[in-house]
Amino acid sequence: MARIQNENRVLLHICCGPCSITVVQGLRAEGFEVTGLFYNPNIHPAAEYLRRREALVEVAARLDFPVIFLDKEYDPAVYLRETAFRENNRCFHCYRLRLERTLKVARRGGFAHFSSTLLYSKMQKHDVIRDLGHDLAGDSKTAFLYRDFRPTWNQGIELSKSFGIYRQDYCGCIFSEFERRRRDLRQLG
């Protein structure tokens, strides 16, 4: 049964602990009641998923906000099926997969809004995420909450370092990791 909708409740898809810090702080400063959602089948390998999950647990404890962990749904095969033969447009399919799931949980939980920490990263396709979120929400009772969180990028980096939490150096997917390490591989040959 869906909960009664409260206009200040937002379900925030969270990709990792560092990206959540200034986003949660900013939304709270606007008066939103934030609940996090950790759903990221794109993260590879599983050890990386666990490191990012633990970093989020630490941030959520420090900032005192609840997080829904969909660990039983962690399955990289879901992501790989969505992106196979779509490598050049994989980010769109990855965003869609995660935002669709966030919206579904938000509707069921009676959240007035849903959003994502993907809007914090300077490395992500911001316009695609914004447009996709609005398209998915349509005219439903659960609206996509768009904010450009990128101006807090440097502050978030500094805070995550001061928290001493794990900071990753790639988006999480196997393709991104390969692209990140490609230079190192070239130096070997």
Describe this structure in words.
Keywords: 4Fe-4S, Disulfide bond, Iron, Iron-sulfur, Metal-binding, Oxidoreductase, Queuosine biosynthesis, Redox-active center, tRNA processing. It catalyses: epoxyqueuosine(34) in tRNA + AH2 = queuosine(34) in tRNA + A + H2O. The chain has 189 residues and is of the alpha/beta class. The protein has one domain: HUPs (Rossmann fold, 3-Layer(aba) Sandwich). Helices cover 51% and strands 13% of the residues. A 5-stranded parallel beta sheet has the order 3-2-1-4-5, sandwiched between helices. The protein is globular.
Separation of termini?
Answer: 58 Å
Structural class: alpha/beta
Uncertain spans, ≥5 residues at pLDDT below 50? none
Give the proportion of residues in helices. Answer: 40-55%
Please provide the count of β strands: 5
* H-E string: EHEHEHHEHEHH
Overall spatial form: globular
Largest sheet: 5 strands, parallel
Share of β-strand residues: 5-15%
The CATH superfamily is identified as HUPs
The first-level CATH class is given as Alpha Beta
How do the strands of the widest beta sheet line up side by side?
3-2-1-4-5
* Topology-level CATH name: Rossmann fold
In DSSP terms, counting alpha (H) and pi (I) runs of 4 or more, how many helices?
7
